[in-house]
From TrEMBL:
The gene coding this protein: LOC107954511
Peptidase A1 domain location: 116-472
Signal peptide range in chain numbering: 1-27
A Pfam family the protein falls into: TAXi_N
Taxonomy of the source species: Eukaryota, Viridiplantae, Streptophyta, Embryophyta, Tracheophyta
Species this chain originates from: Gossypium hirsutum (Upland cotton)
UniProt name for this protein: Aspartic proteinase NANA, chloroplast
Protein origin, superkingdom: Eukaryota
Amino acid sequence: MESSIIFIFLSLSLFSNNCNFFSQVHASKYNHGKVKFKLIHRHSPKLGKMSGTTLGPPSSSRERIKQLIHSDTARLRAISHRLVPRRKNFQVETLRSSNLVELPMRSAADIGTGQYFVSFRIGSPPRKFIMIADTGSTVTWMKCKYNCKTCFDDRIHHHERIFNPKTSRTFIPIPCFSSMCKQDLARSFSLQKCHRSTSPCAYDFRYSDGTKVLGIFGNDTVIVRLTNGKKIKVPDVMIGCSETIVGNFHDIDGVMGLGFDQHSFAVKAAEKFGNKFSYCLVDHLSPSDLVNFLVFGEVDDSTLPEMQYTELFLGIVNPYYAVNVSGISIDGEMLAIPSYAWDLKSGGGFIVDSGSSLTHLVEPVFNQVIAAFQAPISKFKKLSLSVGPSEPEYCFGDVGYKESLMPKLEVHFADGAKLTPPVKSYVIDAAEGIKCLGFVPTRWPGPSVIGNILQQNHLWEFDLLNGKLGFAPSSCTFDD
């Protein structure tokens, strides 16, 4: 049965304010399962075995943390450049649905765009791609040949995955003269030039590390598999066909945009499955048979304790997902952190980001947290990782270390919810014989970022309709 879903958008482009528009879309309700994607961490052995990638396990635990720090540094730089407080971009109104779509995820990119990969099928007939699943990106794009005759010829010769939209009967380019190109996609770096009325809408992404990606926008059909085995189509998903890539991104096929924007895959897929998506991340060092996952729809897991919910700020700091943190306690004692550090309107606040590994705290927060750990870690020999800038500042030898010696950290939300991560999520294994506090300082003013290591062993549910973030401890192994 078809049911109408109304989206009310309050548009705010890079160059204009207060531009209201309304759009009505139709979405089918699926009552026979859920969609689940596996998420593959960048250091998973599975990833290194896939053609077209050279990612996988690093040569040592020290190299592992070095790679994560390198990615985090670029990630935080990109967040700082893009994060400008703004009014709510759009709201979602629809009927609730208990349907679910699940996708497995794994951790991935080197240039700060994300940490987890997902298998993604697009086009008619569908082609499979290994994409970064990124909550900080709004555009879904892949390596592609459209008008360029020589693009990626060397890659095609080695049977790598390159999308050719001209072979997909459902691909429709977005015209460059359209308001979609000139206005709606301005935040996505669409180009305003239009040589011919038949030319497609072009884009030019520039990343903070100097990488640039050029291509054209279009719409195509994505194929997802319900957990009952049935395949369904998600039509009219906006994608980027990237024909020129200068810089990094050599080891990936593209990016799945999970940020908050009306054109992102997260919003497009969630609208069909109750306007919710969730992910669950196991420990980075867990055995490879334990799987991270990304779900579209309602997760019904009887083994979960009661979910806690807190307000999710949507459209305030697009495309990121911001939350209202009110304090941090150590062993039950609230730290003396100034209230302005939590205030989004004052240039602070917190973002929940699956693409950052460590947790980045602005200096007023970081200094208080570290001071609270000084006594327990002073019992151990202070060491240095020596893996470059932005490394954890507080590392120590693990001789005689026990988790019970470390204080309990809790993150408190303004509406009463409380995140209590396991000790291993904030006192991390950094190298052989070395533990580190998993916090990195970042400059004030700016946002603090709850990274994916602190999020591990929890289910995180993003309710886009009601503006709520739910979370609960989880082994990430619930049945399909």
